[in-house]
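Page 37, continued from 36.
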């Protein structure tokens, strides 16, 4: 983890589990300390042994910085750029905090939003004002409704596009299909619809983006450590990274992982950008 001088180090501890002995967390020994008044790299080592004397150690690295490290902005589509994308928002309990982190870190991101109410409208305005891309996920996310027909889907896009324009004056043209363009759910409602939609969306002047790094935060991944691990594992310097995350209500695991993900990116030489109309599309293949 990274800390700024003068901030408090909060010991998050560790867990130890042994196949035979079970939970050994109580026997854990900790070595090392963190001086948050001095810049530097510190290590806390966690040590434990089982009844047979087998030892295991893990360490946590804590970097204390003089000041906040800000992200560098990357050029469209270049290898090593990271596009953080957040689907299914805005939510009043998660989106504002995500925006706070992005602002502090100087990261522009992309929000693929759904229909919103009054409080949500203020957040969409804030996303626009702070230089993020507001993308269209859809007025509704209900597969059964939106994937009934090409018309139903296009209406679902334009309805939200019109609303965003009325709220903010912003013309949203970047889209993401609920479930992604490779989803296998839509064919239950309309066989072959994704193939047709991928064409139709482009014909009507929109672009669509899937992802090539998944946080898993809408699936199996249930902890912020898990979100962090999935994203970091998926990142690569040899591609433009489109990272799928969610800012739906209550998604604290992603909120809590976000800063570490950004810091990892900064420290490993990645740049950050938001998706724009000139960003080369990153797409899956229809699977319907
Ligand atoms: Zn979604």
């Amino acid at each position: 983890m990274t800390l700024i001088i003068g901030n408090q180090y909060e010991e998050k501890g560790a867990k130890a589990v042994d196949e035979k002995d079970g939970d050994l967390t109580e026997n854990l020994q900790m070595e090392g300390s963190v001086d948050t008044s001095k810049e530097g790299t510190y290590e806390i080592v966690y040590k434990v042994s089982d009844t047979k004397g087998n030892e295991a150690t893990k360490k946590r690295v804590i970097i204390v910085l003089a000041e906040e490290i800000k992200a560098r902005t990357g050029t469209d589509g270049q290898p090593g750029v990271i596009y953080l994308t957040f689907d299914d928002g805005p939510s009043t309990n998660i989106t504002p905090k995500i925006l706070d982190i992005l602002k502090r870190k100087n990261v522009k991101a992309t929000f693929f939003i759904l229909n919103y109410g009054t409080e949500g409208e203020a957040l969409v305005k804030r996303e626009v004002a702070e230089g993020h891309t507001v993308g269209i996920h859809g007025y509704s996310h209900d597969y059964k409704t939106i994937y009934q027909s090409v018309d139903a889907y296009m209406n679902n896009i334009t309805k939200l596009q019109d609303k965003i324009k009325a709220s903010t004056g912003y013309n949203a043209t970047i889209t993401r299909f609920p479930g992604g363009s490779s989803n296998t759910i839509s064919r239950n409602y309309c066989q072959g619809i994704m193939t047709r939609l991928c064409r139709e969306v482009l014909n009507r002047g929109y672009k669509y983006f899937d992802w090539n790094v998944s946080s898993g935060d809408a699936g199996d991944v249930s902890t912020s450590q898990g979100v962090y691990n999935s994203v970091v594992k998926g990142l690569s310097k040899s591609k433009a990274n489109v990272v799928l995350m969610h800012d739906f209500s209550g998604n604290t695991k992603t909120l809590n992982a976000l800063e570490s993900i950004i810091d990892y990116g900064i420290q490993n030489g990645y740049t950050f950008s938001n998706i724009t109309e000139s960003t080369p599309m990153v797409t899956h293949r229809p699977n319907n």
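The mean pLDDT is 95. Flag for discussion at group meeting. The pocket of zinc ion is lined by residues 87-88, 137, 141, 178 (CB under 6 Å).
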